[in-house]
Amino acid sequence: MDLRLEVVVIPVSDVDKAKDFYVDTLGFRADADYPIDDGYRIVQVTPPGSACSVIFGEGLTTAPAGSAQGLHLIVTDIEQAVGELTARGVDVDGPFHDATGAFHHAGRADRVPGLQPERASYGSFASFADPDGNEWFLQEVTERAPGR
Q1: What is the rounded CA–CA span in Å between residue 80 and residue 45?
Q2: pLDDT tens track for 81-126
Q3: What is the CA radius of gyration of the chain?
């Protein structure tokens, strides 16, 4: 049986502000905006090239706004992605790599400025946050691990 991740719900405080950020600033596709009734609204957006969408709105989660951490957007050229997001007005931290050479630590611990020295696939990162503080990472993947 296949199990496909297709939707991630993120908690936001201001739906319209979040929609502006994800659609107008980041360039995500606006898929849906359903104001069902007072206190219940569903907005769905999708990152370019992604099969997984992001949903936010009102009445969708009890998680506090800004509490989503470690969301990853995979890119093939992290320098280009950082440049494009910066040009769109996004405050991006990076590129960086982890001091251990493995997956990055939580928060800003053990971040080493610059690309992973060998530019190994999966090794270079950058990060940014939405207006509520939901944390996103860019991860450069140029060659997939076997089975991926």
Answers
A1: 22
A2: 999 999 999 999 999 999 988 888 888 888 999 999 998 889 999 9
A3: 16
